[in-house]
Each structure stands twice: as C-alpha cells, then as structure tokens.
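A favour, since you know our structure tokens better than I do. Could you add the entry underneath, on a fresh line?
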Amino acid sequence: MADRYRPKSAVQRAREGNPSKTAIKEGVIVPRAVLAEPDWSEVFKSSPLSEVEVANVRCREVASAEWRRVVPVLEVAAGIGEVDHATVKDLCVCVARIDQAERDLSERGLMVTAERGTVKNGAATIAGQYRTQLARYVRELGMSPSSRISLVPPTDDDDESGIWD
C-alpha cells in the first residue's frame, strides 16, 4: 500500500500525470561522495564479559559485510552522499542486531524459562523492532524493488557548472 503522507518523487509525479498542473520540484541534489566505512569497534564496544564480546565481534563482522555489500550499490544507484552516512551506518547496525537476535532465538528458542515461568524470548520482540526500522531504511534508500521505481539514477554530466563543483 502506498504511503499517502510521503510525497511522490518528481519522476513518479510526471509518470503518473500531473492533473493539477502544479510545478514539479526536482528535489535536493546531494553531492555524491565515497563513504568511508565506520569503525565498528566504536559502535560495538569491547566488553569484559566473554559472551558479550563474542556477540560484539560477530556484530562488527556482520555490519562490515553489510556495509561492503550495500554501499557500492547505493553510490551508483542512489547517488548517496556524506549526509547519508548515518542512515547507512544505522542500516548496517540494524542488520547486525537482527543477526544477533536471530542467533539468540536459534540457541534459546522462542520461549525461555524465567523467574515467572515460561515466557516469550525478548529477542523476538527486539528482532521485530529492528526489522521495522530496517524496512524504513530500505524504503528510504531505495533498496526494495518497489522503492527503486521512484529513484532517478545520478547523471554523470561533464558540465562542471554545478553548485557543488
């Protein structure tokens, strides 16, 4: 279902028609940049507890792999810039945390024994919340088939008269 509150891109408005004949804004053009991979040890800090440290090491690896998988595609397809660094970083953190929650669910199961008896594993709730956030990032960055329709690939104009040149 389409989001009625999210404005349509210029390309989508032109493609679907513009019966009101209002001017179509092209939107903001962000200067393209090659994003540097974050230091994942700053995000997933070292811990004196061995269980936590093992999980953090894996989160660093998963986040780094996701960064290397996604960023080259986004640099070409979406023309991401330095302003998108935090969004892409958060996307990678979400993927790493989902992996961590899913591993916990695989090891301990959906139901765990607690002081009040058998209860739902909290990792299931956490995974669901991270998946909701991940879906937003995927939509915002044009990483799903339906959201790619609204993306306009950046052009490599040889015209050097742009404001950011």
